[in-house]
Amino acid sequence: MKRKDKEDIALNIIGIISAMAALFFMSSLFLITSCSDDTFILGYNKDLEEIHHQIFEVDSLLRTINMEVDSVNAKI
Description:
single chain, about 80 residues, mainly alpha, two-stranded antiparallel ribbon, 2 strands, elongated
């Protein structure tokens, strides 16, 4: 084998190993963050129940605004 071929094979092996290491790191980071019930939003710790409650409040407010806009449009 030529020296260039050996270097290409070595670079390919290094590339494969680094890709596997990056994939392992990303998957372990995903597993660590997905196992937590707490979520950090803009630096504040929110649990899922509080997040669902806030989403419900915003959704209710948007529906109320939508109904009022529809009633104003119906009068015009």
